[in-house]
Each structure stands twice: as C-alpha cells, then as structure tokens.
Design brief:
15 helices, 518 residues, 22% strand, 10-stranded mixed sheet, 5-stranded antiparallel sheet, Alpha-Beta Plaits, Rossmann fold, Immunoglobulin-like
C-alpha cells in the first residue's frame, strides 16, 4: 500500500511539471485592418502592460505590427473595456507565430519592448488638448504624459523624460506668423503678451532669444539619448531657430526692431538636424517661415492627396521599421502650416520614412543625433484635412483605425526598445562633419572606421588578430550596394559610386556604423 501511494505521488508531481508548459497562455493583439477594431487604443494597452512590468513583443511587419505578451488578467480586462481585440494562446501557438514573423512571407522581426517611456509634451498650459494631434492621440489611447514648456526646459526638466513631443510651436519668435490675419484678435494679443512675459521671466529680452535657448536645450536632450518628435510648424521652425542662433530674423511687428538685413547669408545650416540651403520668408504678411515647406508649391486636390510609407531593413536597424508599422502602406494626406518638406532642402543624413514622390516631398522623416533620435511629421491633424484655427476637436472615436494617427503612436512606443547606438560618419569631398558621433562604446572600439578628409573614401581598421575585414554597405531598405573583402586589417574603401544619402555598414557581419554620403 505504501508503495502504491508513492507511485501516485510521483505521477502527480510529474503531471504538475507538465501542466504549465501545456496550458500556460499568452496574449496576442492583432494590428491588421481586419483583425483589430481599435488600433489606437491597442497602443495604450501595450503601454499599460509595460507600465505594469509586463514585457511586450512588437511583431514588426506581422499583421500590421501586432503585439504579444504573457497573459495578464488586468491587461485582458482593459482590452475588453476599451474595445481592443486580443487572442489567448497556448505557449506552442504563440511560439509558432513568432517563428512565422521572421519567415519569408513577412520578413519581420520580434522586438522586445522593455520599459514604458517617460513622456512629455512641450506646450503652453493654456492650450486646449485638441490644438495638437499628439496630445489627442495620447489622451485617446490613455497613455499618461506631462506638459512642460520653456521655463521647465530651461531649468533642466528634460532630464526626467525619454520622449518629447513639440506641440505646433513657432520657435522663430514670430508667433506663428499669424500677425497679418489675426493681429487684432484677442487670443493673438494674449499669446504674444504671455510669450513676452515668459521671455523676460527666463532672462531674455526677446522671445526669439528664449526660443533659441529652448531648441538648444532640446538638442542636448536628443544628443544625450532622448527622442524628440515634432509635427507641423514645430519641425521647420525648430531647424530655422538653430540656424538663426544669434541672428535677428524677426521683423518689427514681432520684436519692435528690424530684422538683420543680412540674416539669410548668416544662417548656419550645419547646426540644423534635417534641412539646409533654405531661404527665409521674411515678410510679416506671408504665412510661411521659409521655402522648406511644400504647401505653396504642391498642386493636388484632397481626393488624390496621399503619401506612401517606405520599406526598411528590419534586420540591421529595426527603428525605421518600427516607425512605419501600419495596416496600410498608403496614408491619406493632410494639410498644416508646414504640410510637407521639399526634397531639395533635406540633408543627406535624413531618412525619409514616407513621401509623395510625384510632388517631390517628404511627409515623415527621421534621423539620429548623438545617442538619440528626432522625427518630423508634416501636417496638423491626420483626420482633419485643412484644420483651421478654432476648428472643433477631432473625435478619435470615429477614427480609431487611423493610419495617420498610428504613425504618431509608433513614435511613442519605440523608445521602449533597447536600441543599438552606432557612430555616424560623413564622407564628402567638401568637408567632414563629426558632431553626430557619440562616445565610443566597447563594441565599436574593436573596429575603427574613419572618413578621409576631402574625399569619398573611408578607412577600416581592425585589430591585428581579427579576420581580414569583409565590409558590406546596405541602403536603408536592406539592399546591398557594396561588398568588399579587404586584403589587410587597415585599408580604404571607396564609395564614390554611391548616390548621396545614408547607408548602414557592417564589418565581419557586425552592424557598427552609419555612413552619410554627401
């Protein structure tokens, strides 16, 4: 009898060991057009899971960029409450999906989201939430954020955040260039007076001077590892403000004295993140800051106004792929004070995430700066084609599958990834710009890539004991454009045959550098 009990106990223990692997469950949140009734709320679910310590798998290129995680009753209840569809899967079923993601059909990748980003929105506290599409998206998705403005930024508040959105700000100190149309309006006069008081409070004589100090602080935030996202006028005016550091570009109507007559020739384009060689719009009667914006040049009606998301290699650098996840490759266009960016003024280091090639305009662009990133998205509101001043708020309950709004929320989530930071070098016959190079890390000290001044070559140097270097250069889509087996551990590579743009470099199979060909 005693032996029989022992056998039963052994069987029970054995069964207990088997049960978890058979019945343990996962959550799968589809993000394709047919499988998800509320895409925007789904981002909030992913953020909520991260906030509560549940890791999230982002399945890039798989059914619209679906999410997966360990089953959690609280998260599941939130899905039911918010109208987000999910599936409860066994471990084996979930494992089959993750294998399928990286297969030939999807060419995807499972990326681990590890920690909920700390989010701030740069906006005056008196602004209504519906003034800004990002604030609308965050509120609808139920993603928490803080509001900060110039005083907080200048006092070091950015140290607390991972991700910063720039509200539709005018960083040039020209109050949105609304003077010609709205200078007698009560709201315009109040906004100008408020900005002038804030400039004095923060120690500046002029609003433009305060704004330049702010954009420089934000630039340092990005260089040290922060992620900045901007829409509409906060995109081009950010770069204009950097280029116009210490140059008066405001006419008398804005700061009570004339602008510098030589302002255009004094602009420092090397300080800009995205743009160069643009021309300022100096007339206070013109509702434009420069010729960066394509609004006044594009000839297209609303019915045909669309832009297309570009494809990127998920295997080398997954960040661009994360930023374009969607359930469609074509997104309907929308206007703004800054609608789109003219291609001729983009720096070669800019990665174009989405564009309208017929109009020769980029709608959605991205780049690295030091250890961090910046992203610019043209237009004001993805579901309000020509959003006028004072227009009612967009009700996202009617647009919860908006592809245009999904691009915003991609930016909110991607800082949760532990991304690899690589050096960016420029190869140019004209000059070498090295300001974007972060501090060297251990993995890139082993192999050194150095641009050769005034040439279209760079030098690759490997440790003497290493195998002879095999250098492979790919474009952002993953297409191989150059492969070279070096004959020694220190040798030059000629890239004169490559077109202007940004490329990824792997040496002996390791992704270690980005190269900007100018």
């Amino acid at each position: 009898m005693k032996g029989f009990k022992t056998k039963v106990w052994v069987l029970v223990v054995a069964f207990a060991l088997v049960v978890p692997s058979v019945f343990a469950t996962k959550m799968f949140i589809p993000m394709d057009a047919e499988g998800q009734p509320n895409h925007l709320k789904a981002y909030g679910i992913a953020f909520m899971a991260l906030k509560s310590g549940v890791g999230v798998d982002w399945m890039l290129n798989y059914k619209g960029g679906s999410f997966g995680m360990e089953f959690n009753k609280t998260v599941a209840a939130a899905c039911d409450e918010r109208g987000v569809k999910y599936q409860k899967l066994k471990d084996g079923e979930y494992k089959d999906i993750t294998k399928e993601v990286s297969g030939l059909k999807y060419d995807g990748k499972v990326v681990k989201l590890e920690k909920a980003p700390r989010i701030a929105v740069y906006t005056p506290l008196n602004k209504e939430p519906w003034d800004d599409a990002v604030t609308l998206a965050l509120t609808y998705a139920e993603i928490p954020f803080d509001k900060i403005y110039a005083e907080e930024v200048l006092n070091g508040a950015l140290d607390k955040y991972d991700w910063l959105h720039l509200h539709h700000e005018d960083f040039t100190g020209q109050y949105g260039k609304f003077w010609a149309q709205f200078r007698t309006a009560d709201w315009y006069q109040k906004d100008q007076a408020s900005a002038e008081r804030l400039a004095r409070k923060t120690g500046f004589k002029k609003v433009q001077q305060m704004q330049v100090a702010v954009v420089k602080k934000i630039r340092e935030f990005v260089k040290s590892g922060g992620n900045m996202f901007a829409m509409c006028s906060a995109t081009d005016t950010y770069d204009i403000a950097l280029a116009a550091d210490s140059i008066d570009i405001c006419e008398t109507q804005f700061d009570n004295d004339p602008m510098d007559a030589e302002a255009q020739s004094k602009l420092k384009f090397n300080k800009c993140l995205a743009f160069r060689n643009f021309k300022l719009s100096t007339s206070p009667y013109e509702y434009e800051y420069s010729d960066i914006d394509n609004t006044n040049f594009r000839k297209i009606d609303q019915a045909h106004d669309v832009f297309t998301l570009n494809h990127f290699s998920v295997s080398v650098d997954p960040v661009p792929t994360m930023l374009v996840q969607n359930h469609t490759e074509t997104v309907k266009g929308f206007m703004g004070q800054t609608t789109a960016f003219r291609n001729e003024f983009l720096k070669p280091s800019v990665l174009v995430l989405a564009e309208n090639k017929d109009l020769k305009e980029a709608r959605y662009i991205h780049g690295d700066l030091g250890k961090g990133t910046w992203t610019f998205y043209g237009g004001h509101d993805p579901e309000s084609y020509q959003h006028a001043v004072g227009a009612p708020p967009t009700n996202l309950g009617f647009y919860n599958a908006s592809p245009g709004y999904r691009l915003i929320l991609n930016n909110v989530l991607f800082p949760a990834v532990n991304r690899k930071v690589v050096q960016e070098i420029e190869v140019s016959k004209k000059n070498i710009i090295a300001e974007n190079i972060p501090e060297a890390k251990e993995e890139i000290q082993k192999i050194k890539v150095t641009p050769i001044p005034q040439s279209e070559e760079f030098e690759v140097e490997c440790p003497p004991q290493a195998a002879k270097p095999v250098v492979v250069i790919t474009d952002p889509s993953g297409k191989e454009v150059l492969r070279k087996q070096l004959n020694s551990n220190k040798e030059r590579v000629d890239v004169s045959g490559l077109q202007h743009g940004i490329y990824n470099i792997t040496v002996n199979g390791e992704y270690i550098y980005k190269i900007v060909k100018d």
